[in-house]
C-alpha cells in the first residue's frame, strides 16, 4: 500500500540522514536542517512563516527553534514589522553550519536514492513532487511559501 511504503521510506530517509550527520560529526536532525536552510533563504521571518516554509506544525517547530537558539544557530528578535512577533534569523554560527553541513546533506540525499538509476530518480522525484503538491491543501501542516508583493500565495 502506498501509505505504508511512504512511511517506510520516511523512516529509512531519517535513519540515513542521522547516520550521515553522525558520521560527518554533526548533531542535526532533518527538521533542524530544514529550519536552518529555510532561514538562510528567508531571514527575519516569524515562527509561523517558518513552519509554513518547511511544512511543519507550529507546536513542534517551537521546540526545534528553542533548541537551535540555545545552541547559538539562530536568534529571535522583536520584529520590525510587528512588535508582537519575533523575527528569526541565523547567527554567524548558524550560517556557517548551513554551508558546512551541505555536503553531508547531499550525501544523505544521494544515499536515499542510491538504489535507483538516474532516470528512475528523476521520475520518482517528479511523481513525489506531483503527489505532494496535489495533496498540500489536505496536509495538517501544509507548505506555505511567503507571499511576494503583487503575487498570489505560491501554494494556491
UniProtKB/TrEMBL annotation:
Residues 2-133 form the HTH marR-type domain. Keywords: DNA-binding, Transcription, Transcription regulation. InterPro entries: HTH_MarR-typ, MarR/SlyA-like, Tscrpt_reg_MarR-type_CS, WH-like_DNA-bd_sf, WH_DNA-bd_sf. GO terms for molecular function: DNA binding. Residues 136-156 are annotated as: Disordered. PANTHER family: TRANSCRIPTIONAL REGULATOR, TRANSCRIPTIONAL REGULATOR, MARR FAMILY. This is DNA-binding MarR family transcriptional regulator. The lineage of its organism: Bacteria, Pseudomonadati, Pseudomonadota, Alphaproteobacteria, Hyphomicrobiales.
Amino acid at each position: 500500500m502506498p501509505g505504508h511504503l511512504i512511511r517506510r521510506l520516511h523512516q529509512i530517509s531519517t535513519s540515513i540522514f542521522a547516520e550521515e550527520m553522525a558520521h560527518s560529526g554533526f548533531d542535526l536532525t532533518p527538521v533542524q536542517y530544514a529550519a536552518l536552510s529555510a532561514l538562510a533563504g528567508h531571514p527575519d521571518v516569524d515562527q509561523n512563516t517558518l513552519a509554513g516554509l518547511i511544512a511543519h506544525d507550529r507546536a513542534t517547530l517551537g521546540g526545534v527553534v528553542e533548541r537551535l537558539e540555545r545552541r547559538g544557530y539562530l536568534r529571535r528578535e522583536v520584529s520590525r514589522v510587528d512588535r508582537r512577533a519575533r523575527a528569526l534569523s541565523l547567527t554567524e554560527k548558524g550560517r556557517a553550519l548551513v554551508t558546512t553541513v551541505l555536503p553531508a546533506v547531499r550525501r544523505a540525499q544521494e544515499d536515499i536514492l542510491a538504489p535507483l538509476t538516474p532516470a528512475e530518480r528523476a521520475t520518482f522525484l517528479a511523481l513525489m513532487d506531483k503527489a505532494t503538491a496535489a495533496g498540500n491543501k489536505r496536509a495538517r501542516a501544509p507548505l506555505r511559501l511567503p507571499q511576494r508583493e503583487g503575487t498570489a500565495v505560491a501554494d494556491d
